[in-house]
Here is the input.
Amino acid sequence: MTWENSAITITTLLPIAGALVIAMMPREKDRAIRGLGIVFTGAALVLAVAIAVGFDYGRDGLQYVLDVDWISAIGVRYHVGIDGISLPLYVLTFLLSFLCAIYSWRYVPDPGRTKAFLALMLLLQTGMAGTFIAFDLILFFVFWELVLVPMYFLIAVWGSANREYASIKFFLYTLFGSIFMLLGFLAMYFQGPDPHTFDMVVLRDYGIAGGFSQTFQLVVFGAVALGFAVKVPMWPFHTWLPDAHTEAPTIGSVLLAGIMLKMGTYGFIRIAIPFLPYGAQKYAPWIGALAAIGIVYAALACLAQKDLKRLIAFSSVGHMGFVMLGIATLTEIGIQAAIFGMVAHGVITGMLFFCVGSIYDRYHTREIAKIGGGMLQTMPKLGGIFAFVAIASLGLPGLAGFWGEVMALLSSFSPNEFVLADQVGLFRVFMVMGGIGTVLTAGYFLWMLQRVNMGTLPDQWREAGLRDVLAIEWVSWGPLLLLILVLGLYPRIVFGVTDEAVSGLLTLLGS
Amino acid sequence: MIDLIGLTIAVPLVASGVNLLIGKRLGRRSGWIATAAMAVSFIVALGALLQMFSLPAEERTQVVTVAEWIRAGAAAVSLDLRVDPLSITMALVVTGVGSLIHLYAIGYMDHDERPGRFFGYMNLFCAFMLALVLANDFLLLYLGWEGVGLCSYLLIGFWSDRPDAARAAKKAFITTRIGDVLLMLGLFVMWVHFGSFDFDVVLGHEGSLPEIAAGTATAISLLLLGGAVGKSAQLPLHVWLPDAMAGPTPVSALIHAATMVTAGVYLVVRAHALFEISDVALAVVAVVGLAGALYGGFSSLGQYDMKRALAYSTMSQLGFMFLAAGLGFYPTAIALLVAHAFYKALLFLTSGNVMHGLHDEVDVRRLGGLRHDMPWTAALFGAGALALSGLPPFSGFFTKDVILDLASRDGATWAFVLGSLGAMVSAWYIARLYFTAFIGERRYEGSAHEASALMRTPLVVLAVGALFAGIGLELTPEGTLPMFLEPVLGHVVEGDAGPSTQVLMVLAVVVTLIGIGIAWRLYRPANQERWVSFPEREPGMAGVLAHGFYIDGLYAWIVANVGLRGAAALAWFDRTVVDGAVNGVGTLATRASGLAPIWQSGKVRRYALSFMAGGVALLLYAAVKI
Here is the structure.
């Protein structure tokens, strides 16, 4: 065992080890438990950063590979590795989890039970990280489903009033999607090369070489895409999301928006498109259409929201629409845009949910009308941060939200010239819809700021002792705020990573 | 100094950072730091200009690489600034007028609690604006373009506790964003066609024309014009500008009169090579400009709020600039831009004096006779009004009237006739403001105090510019400034249709005098009881003008009744139909399977638990196997 082949296994499983240690702690040692949460997520982040530092950015293909037999009876292998497409999401997973652990130093929502709360969070972390490194379909599925359970409990136990309904809906809806996904995986196993394999590298090469028949691809792409689309979520499979977000505790929302949604879009890029290129080509206009509808639909829905958290949740549907639009173009720019958009959305929307969590902590309400405005006057720092992040989210150049959106729109101006040549007009309509979406996005975010940040403080809050940003919040938010700026000013830190892998993918697709 | 041009951006940027980060500790020193930064920036730009004079005309376009932005293999994207006669003229306006407005703002914002934040935003604005005008490619231009929009938002909403300021800030950002999206789409077409954003590639260089079909050029030009229309508050995206006056007055002077709103004119003039290839784009620019000139002028007549009247006037003046650009008189468009920067900044700041001296009163019906209490302010406002009205020998005469003169001799009679009507209205509305606010009886209570010397000094400089820029800079087509711009913008070719210049000049003066005469007849002190009234609703034509022909009201109605109601309907649809279907399927499934309703039972939780156990077991198994 060398660092090279064990690094990502150790890093990915470290949080589970942390969960076990925390589970064995006595319940009374609340502070120590929280400290352990920070220690374990912090150590995992250090390892993840070390992996990123040791990564060879000039090279396409998998690195840090470990490929060993697992369940040999059915050819399931423990095949993990990392490439430029995985790496940004992998590191983001560890960063956000670490920041959530710091945030939990102060905020563990009712009913407390810190031990279980943090153990579940760590378990969730392993599941999310594992999804991005798995290169065996069954292993991928295991990590994918592993994510579901701790998130279910985080919502069901630590959520707000309507948590029961929201958690079950979240669980069943995504489970419903993943059943189709699993069926698709099994179909590829049985129709794939001989000997049958779940190995994602083998299946990718087989798929790109045109191994699967066209009819097969149309059916199986539909099944797999449905599983991913629910997770993204794409319109009209999005309705679990606002409920789950609104009821979830703050860190649940941060991780849900920050990482979990990306598992769906990642699935499209990693599995659906390269394995089933013909299916991708045929479905691309439909995916583009759902994405474009989702952008405008979500923005309009945001305009009607009265609950701050629900508004942010709906905005995720729109932002993920831009990501999917980029993917649907099947171009290098579009997929680059999608990966950038995923990272940017993870950072920005994660940060927005932190803000909303802290606003709720002050006001004990999330209703925009009850908050009533004036936050810039009473809590200038929190208000300033909230405005900064909202403006980043509406895609202002120079901040992180810009590049993903603008490049997704640019790619839909000229979608893949080989396979989507006769759909150019359609994609330009999507582009215009996306453009309308950006105006509406500015509309709902600025209207939100007008009602929450600006104006004068309602009398009822004057004596409420609203406290501006706390030290622990600065610590857990600082890296994200910095990243929003750095990603905006220097997008190469993501594009430089994804460059080789994406052009490698597109070269393989060739067409 | 040309090599150091990056400092013009860097210095305000750094000063902005200082003010925003430690502004609280700096207190009132903030304003001086910001003003000094602008002064340094101005000196650098001036130095670059002087160095440029020592070069032959054809070498006056230089590209300065400030930093390498992106390096990917052989392809390197560097951060380039373009120093040429056009960009340096714009940079001098931004830094020169900008410095004076900053200096004024030290006095104006004296009582504000957060000067650090205010001056931080102001400096940040100037840095973005300079990036916009000094950019060597459309990408940096776009970054600056969005950046100034953000600063405009932050500064309009600077007094965020005021509901009207909060509303106006939002409205300004969203309205201009519509234009920004069009501009962005234009850049997409540009990128796909040229594979570059570089001015030299897209706009051609050294006399060579860009290689592009007329249809594509039309598409790009009209999309760029869409951006310009939003930023420069032209029809139909103008509605944000009058409301933007809710911001502090120095902001109105700097952003919403002298600099940001002229960015649209700059964009069209800069990209004129593309517009010229298209056969219709320039005509559209001219029509948009003329419509804005007339609409803004007439709407200004109906305003009682001094700042709103000036805002509509700005729209009208920008319309004249677009008209000039659309007719191909690019140097004259820039000449008017320069002259306007002086006199409109002056007019706004003098109204700022009035507000400062009279507890933010801006309604001319409650002013009157101010020249007694505020002689300096009255004289300075008068200087600005003279310059704007277009009486010789002041700067408006050498620009606005020159545009009409050129139009006439170019055979664009329609532009001449309607433009002259606009010129007449300009004289009318500005004289009206002067007569109503500064002469006659006092209609305010208490006494107004004159602005401090600190606030008056920059105004005197602006007044000198406003009055004498026309002669000093020789803004006429053969004069110093237009000839200086020639290497970039070409020569204004004077046609020879229509009457001679002498006849036209006399005509222009007559038109202006008619405008002033009408204003005197209507608003002279003896008539004040006829127009000083506060009706619930303005009757007839007055109401139409006061509400800017009800365009804003129409938009507001659409947003409220179509937009927000539609959004509410969609949210209902989402809950009951889209989500209803999901819930329906869930209910159906549980009924069909004969199970107890799954929503209430503990089944899911038990299932989830066993799921988790299985997952952990699998992982442990995996760990053991390795």
In short: The two ends of chain A are 40 Å apart (CA to CA). Residues 374 and 456 of chain A are 4 Å apart (CA to CA).
